[in-house]
């Protein structure tokens, strides 16, 4: 009997791409949900399928032959009921036996991730909610240009500490759950790095690795909001980033768990190792 496939949303993103590679290495059939299958840049072996979250008619066809689903919320989407609801309900009708949801550590009703988790639960689907801490990869994406051009980090996080987690670890955990759902009971899993550092310490790690001075410049929430708006960020994205900064400033982002190690059988990747692995990205 042919084993059913895994549908991965956000397959071209930071977590999704790493997850696709993990699943393919484990011998899984992967359907990668993308808006345009003809132009999608995917790892070799993944099968692109059309999935447009703004077109509910694409939900059911994308789930044909699928019994497991990786679900994330694109950063630009705040109305999760409209964008993700059709896919979640189609998954329930298709008999999907496990949904792995990419949520966030400290999820609460102020965040769209909360509504996404509740929606999957209400649909009666078996769910593992991965709740990662602050992505180390944000230093490559959201702050990559600023680090390359200005050698600085400017955030409204004060001296708050963060348990940076490598998205490669998040993807590896998601893969383990999706490959063998029976071995991993449904429920939330908080995923963090092995230590909590403030952004001054993160800047020092970058400085040591890159051989040039990287500074952390704490700013006000008003300055942070203005900067994001000047960069063209959507209002919903700005709100989420400000919530994250406030959470960090209040000391609520420093929690360290064994979530990665419990699933993978090895310690989570340190921020120092992450910076070393990606040092050429900030050249």
- Assign the CATH architecture: 3-Layer(aba) Sandwich
Gyration radius, rounded: 19 Å
The CATH homologous superfamily is named NAD(P)-binding Rossmann-like Domain
State the low-pLDDT regions, or none.
Answer: none
For the largest beta-sheet, the strand count, sense and barrel status come to: 7 strands, parallel
CATH topology: Rossmann fold
What is the distance, rounded to the nearest whole angstrom, between the alpha carbons of the first and last residues?
50 Å
List how many beta strands DSSP finds: 11
**Helical content band:** 25-40%
Number of helices: 11
Question: Spatial order of the strands in the main sheet?
Answer: 3-2-1-4-5-6-9
Shape, per Cα inertia axes:
globular
CATH class: Alpha Beta
Helix/strand/pairing category: alpha/beta
Q: What series of H and E elements makes up the topology? A: EHEEHEHEHEHEEHEEHEHHHH
Mean pLDDT: 95
How much strand?
Answer: 15-25%
Indicate how many domains the architecture comprises: 1
Describe this structure in words.
- The chain is an alpha/beta fold.
- The chain has a single domain (5-195, 253-282), classed as Rossmann fold.
- 39% of the residues lie in helices and 17% in strands.
- Helix 3 links the parallel strand 4 (66-71) and strand 5.
- The longest helix has 15 residues, at 235-249.
- The radius of gyration is 19 Å and the shape is globular.
- The relative contact order is 0.13.
């Amino acid at each position: 009997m042919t084993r059913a496939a895994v549908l991965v949303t956000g397959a071209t993103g930071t977590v999704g791409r790493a997850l696709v590679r993990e699943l393919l290495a484990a011998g899984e059939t992967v359907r990668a949900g993308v808006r345009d299958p003809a132009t999608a840049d995917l790892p070799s072996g993944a099968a692109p399928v059309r999935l447009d979250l703004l077109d509910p008619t694409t939900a059911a066809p994308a789930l044909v032959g699928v019994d497991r689903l990786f679900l994330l919320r694109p950063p630009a989407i705040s109305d999760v009921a409209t964008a993700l609801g059709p896919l979640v309900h189609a998954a329930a009708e298709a008999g999907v036996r496990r949904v792995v949801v990419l949520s966030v550590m400290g999820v609460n009703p102020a965040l769209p991730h909360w509504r996404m988790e509740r929606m999957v639960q209400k649909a009666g689907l078996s769910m593992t909610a991965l709740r990662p801490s602050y992505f180390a990869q944000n230093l490559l994406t959201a702050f990559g240009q600023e680090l390359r051009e200005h050698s600085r980090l400017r955030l409204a996080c004060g001296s708050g500490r963060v348990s940076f987690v490598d998205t490669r670890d998040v993807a590896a955990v998601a893969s383990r759950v999706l490959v063998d759902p029976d071995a991993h009971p449904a429920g939330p899993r908080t995923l963090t790095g092995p230590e909590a550092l403030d952004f001054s310490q993160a800047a020092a790690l970058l400085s040591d690795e890159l051989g040039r001075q990287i500074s952390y410049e704490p700013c006000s929430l008003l300055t942070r909001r203005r900067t994001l708006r000047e960069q063209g960020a959507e209002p919903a994205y700005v709100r989420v980033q400000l919530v994250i900064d406030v959470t960090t400033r209040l000391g609520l982002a420093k929690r360290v768990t064994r979530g990665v190690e419990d699933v993978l059988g090895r310690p989570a990747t340190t921020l120092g190792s992450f910076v070393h692995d990606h040092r050429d990205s900030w050249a």
